[in-house]
Model the fold of this input.
Amino acid sequence: MGLNTRSTALFDEICQIPCLNSHSHIAPEADRLAEAPDALAFFKHAYAASDLVSAGMSSDEMETALTPGLPLAQRWKIFEPYFRWTRLTGYSQCILEGFRDILGFPEFTAETVEPISEALREHSKPGFYHEVLKRRSNIALSVVNMEDLIEVDRELFLPLPRLNRFSMLHSAAQVQAIERDYNVSVATLDQHVEVIRQVCQDWKAATVAGVKMSQSYHRRMDFKQRRKEDAAKVFDRLMRGNYAGLESEEGVLLEDYLVFECCRAASDADLTIQFHQGIRAGNYGSMEGCSPAPLAELFQTFREARFDLSHSGYPYLREGAVLGKTFSNVYLNMSWIHIISPIGSRLDLKEWLRMVPYNKIIAFGDDLRHVEAVYGHLKIARQNFAIVLAEMIEEDLISESIALDIAQAAFHDNPAKIYGVNV
Ligand SMILES: [Zn+2]
Done:
Protein backbone atom coordinates (compact mmCIF):
# COMPACT_ATOMS: atom_id res chain seq x y z
CA MET A 1 0.00 0.00 0.00
CA GLY A 2 1.45 3.40 -0.98
CA LEU A 3 1.70 6.28 1.45
CA ASN A 4 -1.21 8.16 -0.15
CA THR A 5 -3.58 5.19 -0.08
CA ARG A 6 -2.56 4.38 3.47
CA SER A 7 -2.94 7.94 4.77
CA THR A 8 -6.33 8.28 3.03
CA ALA A 9 -7.52 5.04 4.64
CA LEU A 10 -6.21 6.20 8.05
CA PHE A 11 -7.85 9.60 7.59
CA ASP A 12 -11.21 7.87 7.05
CA GLU A 13 -10.69 5.82 10.22
CA ILE A 14 -9.65 8.88 12.24
CA CYS A 15 -12.82 10.70 11.12
CA GLN A 16 -14.77 7.92 12.90
CA ILE A 17 -13.16 8.83 16.26
CA PRO A 18 -15.34 11.37 18.10
CA CYS A 19 -13.10 14.38 18.69
CA LEU A 20 -12.89 16.21 21.98
CA ASN A 21 -12.15 19.74 20.83
CA SER A 22 -9.89 21.21 23.50
CA HIS A 23 -10.04 24.95 22.80
CA SER A 24 -12.73 26.94 21.05
CA HIS A 25 -14.24 30.40 20.65
CA ILE A 26 -17.40 29.32 18.80
CA ALA A 27 -20.09 31.92 19.47
CA PRO A 28 -23.52 30.76 20.66
CA GLU A 29 -25.66 29.73 17.67
CA ALA A 30 -28.12 32.60 18.23
CA ASP A 31 -25.26 35.13 18.01
CA ARG A 32 -24.00 33.57 14.81
CA LEU A 33 -27.50 33.63 13.26
CA ALA A 34 -27.79 37.33 14.13
CA GLU A 35 -24.31 38.08 12.80
CA ALA A 36 -25.01 36.36 9.42
CA PRO A 37 -21.49 36.68 7.94
CA ASP A 38 -21.06 36.45 4.16
CA ALA A 39 -18.11 34.62 2.58
CA LEU A 40 -15.73 37.60 2.76
CA ALA A 41 -16.65 38.36 6.38
CA PHE A 42 -15.12 34.97 7.31
CA PHE A 43 -11.73 36.49 6.48
CA LYS A 44 -12.23 39.20 9.08
CA HIS A 45 -11.62 36.57 11.75
CA ALA A 46 -8.47 37.49 13.70
CA TYR A 47 -6.35 34.73 12.12
CA ALA A 48 -7.16 35.10 8.42
CA ALA A 49 -7.15 38.89 8.89
CA SER A 50 -3.69 38.83 10.45
CA ASP A 51 -2.28 37.10 7.35
CA LEU A 52 -3.94 39.72 5.11
CA VAL A 53 -2.40 42.50 7.24
CA SER A 54 0.96 40.78 7.05
CA ALA A 55 0.60 40.62 3.24
CA GLY A 56 0.07 44.39 3.20
CA MET A 57 -3.69 45.00 3.40
CA SER A 58 -4.48 48.33 5.07
CA SER A 59 -7.09 48.69 7.79
CA ASP A 60 -9.30 50.76 5.45
CA GLU A 61 -9.12 48.09 2.77
CA MET A 62 -9.93 45.43 5.35
CA GLU A 63 -12.92 47.33 6.67
CA THR A 64 -14.34 47.88 3.16
CA ALA A 65 -13.58 44.42 1.78
CA LEU A 66 -14.54 42.26 4.73
CA THR A 67 -17.55 44.05 6.23
CA PRO A 68 -20.95 43.38 4.62
CA GLY A 69 -22.11 46.58 2.90
CA LEU A 70 -20.83 47.29 -0.60
CA PRO A 71 -21.61 44.73 -3.35
CA LEU A 72 -19.54 41.54 -3.02
CA ALA A 73 -18.00 41.98 -6.50
CA GLN A 74 -16.60 45.37 -5.49
CA ARG A 75 -15.28 44.04 -2.18
CA TRP A 76 -13.70 41.03 -3.92
CA LYS A 77 -11.58 43.37 -6.08
CA ILE A 78 -9.99 44.84 -2.93
CA PHE A 79 -9.60 41.42 -1.28
CA GLU A 80 -8.21 39.38 -4.19
CA PRO A 81 -4.69 40.87 -4.56
CA TYR A 82 -3.90 40.00 -0.92
CA PHE A 83 -5.80 36.71 -0.88
CA ARG A 84 -3.62 35.61 -3.81
CA TRP A 85 -0.69 35.63 -1.38
CA THR A 86 -2.43 34.25 1.71
CA ARG A 87 -4.59 31.53 0.14
CA LEU A 88 -2.12 28.76 1.05
CA THR A 89 -1.76 29.54 4.76
CA GLY A 90 -3.47 27.35 7.32
CA TYR A 91 -5.59 30.33 8.44
CA SER A 92 -7.07 30.63 4.93
CA GLN A 93 -7.19 26.91 4.28
CA CYS A 94 -9.40 26.10 7.27
CA ILE A 95 -12.03 28.50 5.89
CA LEU A 96 -11.66 27.19 2.33
CA GLU A 97 -12.00 23.56 3.47
CA GLY A 98 -15.29 24.50 5.15
CA PHE A 99 -16.54 26.21 1.99
CA ARG A 100 -15.51 23.13 0.00
CA ASP A 101 -16.98 20.34 2.10
CA ILE A 102 -19.84 21.97 4.02
CA LEU A 103 -21.10 24.26 1.25
CA GLY A 104 -19.88 22.35 -1.83
CA PHE A 105 -17.60 24.98 -3.40
CA PRO A 106 -14.06 23.74 -4.15
CA GLU A 107 -12.89 27.16 -5.40
CA PHE A 108 -13.08 30.61 -3.81
CA THR A 109 -13.07 33.08 -6.72
CA ALA A 110 -14.77 36.18 -8.12
CA GLU A 111 -17.36 33.80 -9.57
CA THR A 112 -18.10 31.84 -6.38
CA VAL A 113 -18.00 34.56 -3.71
CA GLU A 114 -21.67 35.39 -4.35
CA PRO A 115 -23.03 31.79 -4.48
CA ILE A 116 -20.99 30.81 -1.38
CA SER A 117 -22.50 33.75 0.50
CA GLU A 118 -25.94 32.66 -0.64
CA ALA A 119 -25.21 29.07 0.46
CA LEU A 120 -24.11 30.39 3.86
CA ARG A 121 -27.42 32.21 4.26
CA GLU A 122 -29.27 29.05 3.23
CA HIS A 123 -27.57 26.68 5.66
CA SER A 124 -27.43 29.05 8.67
CA LYS A 125 -30.70 27.97 10.28
CA PRO A 126 -31.51 27.07 13.89
CA GLY A 127 -29.93 23.67 14.58
CA PHE A 128 -27.15 24.00 12.00
CA TYR A 129 -24.46 23.91 14.72
CA HIS A 130 -25.59 20.40 15.58
CA GLU A 131 -25.39 19.40 11.90
CA VAL A 132 -21.90 20.88 11.34
CA LEU A 133 -20.28 20.07 14.71
CA LYS A 134 -21.82 16.68 15.46
CA ARG A 135 -22.79 15.10 12.16
CA ARG A 136 -20.24 16.54 9.72
CA SER A 137 -17.28 17.05 12.08
CA ASN A 138 -17.90 14.23 14.59
CA ILE A 139 -16.99 16.51 17.52
CA ALA A 140 -18.23 15.09 20.83
CA LEU A 141 -17.78 18.35 22.76
CA SER A 142 -15.98 21.65 22.28
CA VAL A 143 -14.24 23.29 25.24
CA VAL A 144 -15.23 26.92 24.92
CA ASN A 145 -13.17 29.81 26.34
CA MET A 146 -14.93 32.51 28.37
CA GLU A 147 -14.11 35.11 31.04
CA ASP A 148 -16.47 34.28 33.93
CA LEU A 149 -18.56 31.12 33.84
CA ILE A 150 -21.63 31.45 31.62
CA GLU A 151 -23.98 28.66 30.64
CA VAL A 152 -23.60 27.00 27.25
CA ASP A 153 -25.45 24.42 25.17
CA ARG A 154 -24.14 21.36 27.02
CA GLU A 155 -24.94 19.09 24.07
CA LEU A 156 -22.15 20.79 22.14
CA PHE A 157 -19.95 22.68 24.58
CA LEU A 158 -18.06 22.50 27.86
CA PRO A 159 -17.12 25.80 29.56
CA LEU A 160 -13.53 26.84 30.27
CA PRO A 161 -13.65 30.04 32.36
CA ARG A 162 -10.57 32.21 32.88
CA LEU A 163 -8.81 33.22 36.08
CA ASN A 164 -7.26 36.21 34.28
CA ARG A 165 -9.25 38.88 36.13
CA PHE A 166 -8.16 37.42 39.49
CA SER A 167 -4.49 37.04 38.63
CA MET A 168 -3.66 40.09 36.48
CA LEU A 169 -4.48 43.02 38.74
CA HIS A 170 -4.37 46.57 37.38
CA SER A 171 -6.22 48.57 40.01
CA ALA A 172 -8.48 48.59 43.08
CA ALA A 173 -11.45 49.15 40.73
CA GLN A 174 -10.80 45.69 39.29
CA VAL A 175 -11.04 44.14 42.78
CA GLN A 176 -14.23 46.12 43.42
CA ALA A 177 -15.73 44.71 40.21
CA ILE A 178 -14.92 41.19 41.46
CA GLU A 179 -16.66 42.07 44.78
CA ARG A 180 -19.78 43.10 42.85
CA ASP A 181 -19.81 40.24 40.34
CA TYR A 182 -19.14 37.52 42.92
CA ASN A 183 -20.97 39.10 45.88
CA VAL A 184 -17.93 39.02 48.18
CA SER A 185 -15.92 41.57 50.10
CA VAL A 186 -12.18 41.77 49.59
CA ALA A 187 -9.92 44.02 51.66
CA THR A 188 -6.79 41.87 51.97
CA LEU A 189 -4.70 39.53 49.86
CA ASP A 190 -5.87 36.58 51.98
CA GLN A 191 -9.48 37.43 51.22
CA HIS A 192 -8.72 37.78 47.52
CA VAL A 193 -7.08 34.33 47.50
CA GLU A 194 -10.05 32.92 49.41
CA VAL A 195 -12.36 34.20 46.63
CA ILE A 196 -10.18 32.45 44.01
CA ARG A 197 -10.40 29.22 45.99
CA GLN A 198 -14.18 29.49 46.33
CA VAL A 199 -14.61 30.32 42.62
CA CYS A 200 -12.60 27.23 41.66
CA GLN A 201 -14.74 25.04 43.94
CA ASP A 202 -17.93 26.54 42.47
CA TRP A 203 -16.76 26.07 38.90
CA LYS A 204 -15.81 22.47 39.63
CA ALA A 205 -19.31 21.88 41.03
CA ALA A 206 -20.78 23.44 37.86
CA THR A 207 -18.78 20.97 35.65
CA VAL A 208 -16.23 22.95 33.70
CA ALA A 209 -13.30 21.60 31.66
CA GLY A 210 -10.80 23.45 33.85
CA VAL A 211 -9.52 26.99 34.23
CA LYS A 212 -7.64 29.12 31.73
CA MET A 213 -4.88 31.71 32.16
CA SER A 214 -3.37 33.89 29.43
CA GLN A 215 -0.33 35.53 31.03
CA SER A 216 1.89 34.90 28.00
CA TYR A 217 0.07 37.70 26.13
CA HIS A 218 1.88 40.23 28.33
CA ARG A 219 4.98 38.71 29.95
CA ARG A 220 7.52 35.93 30.18
CA MET A 221 6.16 32.83 31.92
CA ASP A 222 8.87 32.96 34.60
CA PHE A 223 6.62 32.85 37.67
CA LYS A 224 8.58 32.60 40.91
CA GLN A 225 7.45 31.61 44.38
CA ARG A 226 7.07 34.88 46.33
CA ARG A 227 6.77 35.56 50.03
CA LYS A 228 3.21 36.20 51.12
CA GLU A 229 4.25 39.25 53.24
CA ASP A 230 5.79 40.89 50.16
CA ALA A 231 2.74 40.18 47.96
CA ALA A 232 0.39 41.40 50.73
CA LYS A 233 2.23 44.75 50.89
CA VAL A 234 1.77 45.23 47.13
CA PHE A 235 -1.90 44.25 47.35
CA ASP A 236 -2.42 46.83 50.15
CA ARG A 237 -0.80 49.53 48.00
CA LEU A 238 -3.08 48.52 45.10
CA MET A 239 -6.15 48.85 47.32
CA ARG A 240 -4.98 52.29 48.51
CA GLY A 241 -4.49 53.47 44.91
CA ASN A 242 -0.74 53.57 45.32
CA TYR A 243 0.30 50.75 42.94
CA ALA A 244 2.75 50.99 40.04
CA GLY A 245 0.70 48.69 37.75
CA LEU A 246 0.79 45.14 36.42
CA GLU A 247 3.89 45.67 34.29
CA SER A 248 5.95 47.17 37.16
CA GLU A 249 8.34 45.24 39.36
CA GLU A 250 5.78 45.08 42.16
CA GLY A 251 3.07 44.12 39.65
CA VAL A 252 5.18 41.17 38.53
CA LEU A 253 5.69 40.13 42.15
CA LEU A 254 1.96 40.23 42.90
CA GLU A 255 1.11 38.40 39.68
CA ASP A 256 3.70 35.69 40.43
CA TYR A 257 2.11 35.16 43.84
CA LEU A 258 -1.42 35.08 42.44
CA VAL A 259 -0.57 32.68 39.59
CA PHE A 260 0.83 30.26 42.17
CA GLU A 261 -2.32 30.65 44.28
CA CYS A 262 -4.58 30.18 41.22
CA CYS A 263 -2.73 26.94 40.40
CA ARG A 264 -2.99 25.81 44.02
CA ALA A 265 -6.73 26.56 44.09
CA ALA A 266 -7.40 24.86 40.74
CA SER A 267 -5.32 21.84 41.66
CA ASP A 268 -7.06 21.51 45.05
CA ALA A 269 -10.41 21.67 43.22
CA ASP A 270 -9.18 18.99 40.75
CA LEU A 271 -9.45 21.38 37.80
CA THR A 272 -7.07 21.21 34.83
CA ILE A 273 -5.07 24.41 34.31
CA GLN A 274 -4.84 25.49 30.68
CA PHE A 275 -2.25 28.13 29.84
CA HIS A 276 -2.24 29.99 26.55
CA GLN A 277 1.32 29.04 25.64
CA GLY A 278 2.86 30.18 22.38
CA ILE A 279 2.54 32.90 19.78
CA ARG A 280 0.17 35.80 20.30
CA ALA A 281 -2.80 36.30 17.98
CA GLY A 282 -2.86 39.38 15.75
CA ASN A 283 0.00 41.38 14.25
CA TYR A 284 3.13 43.02 15.61
CA GLY A 285 3.00 40.95 18.83
CA SER A 286 6.07 40.40 20.95
CA MET A 287 7.37 36.85 21.13
CA GLU A 288 8.09 37.30 24.83
CA GLY A 289 6.02 34.73 26.67
CA CYS A 290 6.04 32.11 23.87
CA SER A 291 8.69 29.98 25.51
CA PRO A 292 7.33 27.43 28.01
CA ALA A 293 10.72 26.59 29.58
CA PRO A 294 10.43 29.25 32.34
CA LEU A 295 7.28 27.50 33.65
CA ALA A 296 9.39 24.71 35.16
CA GLU A 297 9.33 26.17 38.70
CA LEU A 298 5.52 26.28 38.68
CA PHE A 299 5.32 22.73 37.32
CA GLN A 300 7.82 21.49 39.93
CA THR A 301 5.72 23.02 42.71
CA PHE A 302 2.34 21.52 41.76
CA ARG A 303 3.11 17.94 40.86
CA GLU A 304 -0.47 16.80 41.44
CA ALA A 305 -1.92 19.44 39.09
CA ARG A 306 -2.69 18.96 35.39
CA PHE A 307 -1.10 21.62 33.18
CA ASP A 308 -2.49 21.81 29.66
CA LEU A 309 -0.13 23.79 27.39
CA SER A 310 -2.51 25.12 24.78
CA HIS A 311 -0.51 25.62 21.53
CA SER A 312 2.38 23.69 23.17
CA GLY A 313 4.63 26.77 23.21
CA TYR A 314 4.61 27.33 19.45
CA PRO A 315 7.20 27.94 17.95
CA TYR A 316 9.12 26.46 20.92
CA LEU A 317 7.55 23.04 20.47
CA ARG A 318 10.73 21.20 21.35
CA GLU A 319 10.90 23.02 24.70
CA GLY A 320 7.26 22.05 25.27
CA ALA A 321 8.11 18.48 24.31
CA VAL A 322 10.91 18.29 26.89
CA LEU A 323 8.42 19.42 29.55
CA GLY A 324 5.82 16.93 28.28
CA LYS A 325 8.45 14.19 28.33
CA THR A 326 9.84 14.82 31.79
CA PHE A 327 6.92 16.24 33.82
CA SER A 328 4.03 13.87 34.50
CA ASN A 329 1.75 16.89 35.09
CA VAL A 330 2.34 18.58 31.69
CA TYR A 331 0.23 17.91 28.58
CA LEU A 332 0.98 19.05 25.02
CA ASN A 333 -2.07 20.55 23.38
CA MET A 334 -1.98 20.98 19.60
CA SER A 335 -4.84 23.52 19.56
CA TRP A 336 -4.41 26.22 16.89
CA ILE A 337 -1.04 24.93 15.66
CA HIS A 338 -2.39 22.74 12.82
CA ILE A 339 -3.33 26.01 11.09
CA ILE A 340 -0.42 28.16 12.34
CA SER A 341 1.83 25.73 10.49
CA PRO A 342 0.25 22.57 9.06
CA ILE A 343 3.64 21.16 8.07
CA GLY A 344 5.42 22.26 11.27
CA SER A 345 2.72 20.47 13.31
CA ARG A 346 3.39 17.26 11.41
CA LEU A 347 7.14 17.43 11.90
CA ASP A 348 6.73 18.01 15.60
CA LEU A 349 4.06 15.37 16.05
CA LYS A 350 6.35 12.84 14.43
CA GLU A 351 9.17 13.82 16.78
CA TRP A 352 6.90 13.78 19.84
CA LEU A 353 5.61 10.27 19.13
CA ARG A 354 9.16 8.92 19.50
CA MET A 355 9.88 11.17 22.47
CA VAL A 356 6.80 11.77 24.66
CA PRO A 357 4.34 9.22 26.11
CA TYR A 358 1.31 9.60 23.88
CA ASN A 359 -1.17 9.87 26.72
CA LYS A 360 0.30 13.40 27.04
CA ILE A 361 -0.80 14.63 23.59
CA ILE A 362 -4.09 16.42 22.85
CA ALA A 363 -4.63 16.38 19.09
CA PHE A 364 -7.00 19.25 18.45
CA GLY A 365 -8.48 22.56 19.52
CA ASP A 366 -10.02 24.81 16.87
CA ASP A 367 -9.35 28.22 18.49
CA LEU A 368 -11.86 29.68 15.99
CA ARG A 369 -15.28 31.29 15.91
CA HIS A 370 -17.11 29.97 12.82
CA VAL A 371 -18.25 26.33 12.80
CA GLU A 372 -17.48 25.90 9.07
CA ALA A 373 -13.84 26.87 9.70
CA VAL A 374 -13.78 24.58 12.77
CA TYR A 375 -14.72 21.73 10.42
CA GLY A 376 -11.91 22.77 8.05
CA HIS A 377 -9.34 23.02 10.83
CA LEU A 378 -10.27 19.59 12.19
CA LYS A 379 -9.95 18.12 8.68
CA ILE A 380 -6.39 19.51 8.47
CA ALA A 381 -5.57 18.10 11.94
CA ARG A 382 -6.93 14.67 11.01
CA GLN A 383 -4.96 14.76 7.75
CA ASN A 384 -1.79 15.67 9.66
CA PHE A 385 -2.23 12.71 12.01
CA ALA A 386 -3.07 10.39 9.09
CA ILE A 387 0.04 11.42 7.13
CA VAL A 388 2.40 11.15 10.12
CA LEU A 389 0.97 7.79 11.21
CA ALA A 390 1.06 6.43 7.64
CA GLU A 391 4.72 7.43 7.37
CA MET A 392 5.48 5.63 10.64
CA ILE A 393 3.73 2.49 9.37
CA GLU A 394 5.71 2.69 6.09
CA GLU A 395 8.90 3.00 8.12
CA ASP A 396 7.95 -0.18 10.01
CA LEU A 397 7.86 1.71 13.30
CA ILE A 398 4.24 0.96 14.19
CA SER A 399 1.37 -1.28 13.11
CA GLU A 400 -1.94 0.06 11.86
CA SER A 401 -3.66 -0.88 15.11
CA ILE A 402 -1.11 1.13 17.11
CA ALA A 403 -1.62 4.04 14.70
CA LEU A 404 -5.33 4.00 15.47
CA ASP A 405 -4.68 3.66 19.20
CA ILE A 406 -2.55 6.83 19.01
CA ALA A 407 -5.29 8.72 17.15
CA GLN A 408 -7.99 7.45 19.54
CA ALA A 409 -5.90 8.63 22.51
CA ALA A 410 -4.97 12.03 21.09
CA PHE A 411 -8.35 13.02 19.60
CA HIS A 412 -10.55 11.59 22.32
CA ASP A 413 -9.31 9.61 25.31
CA ASN A 414 -6.56 11.96 26.54
CA PRO A 415 -8.62 15.16 26.51
CA ALA A 416 -11.64 13.29 27.95
CA LYS A 417 -9.50 12.21 30.90
CA ILE A 418 -7.76 15.58 31.35
CA TYR A 419 -11.05 17.53 31.34
CA GLY A 420 -12.91 14.87 33.33
CA VAL A 421 -15.63 14.19 30.79
CA ASN A 422 -17.32 10.99 29.82
CA VAL A 423 -18.51 11.24 26.21
ZN1 LIG B 1 -7.90 30.83 21.96
The pocket of zinc ion is lined by residues 23, 25, 145, 367 (CB under 6 Å). The chain has two domains: 37-123, 138-418. The mean pLDDT is 97.
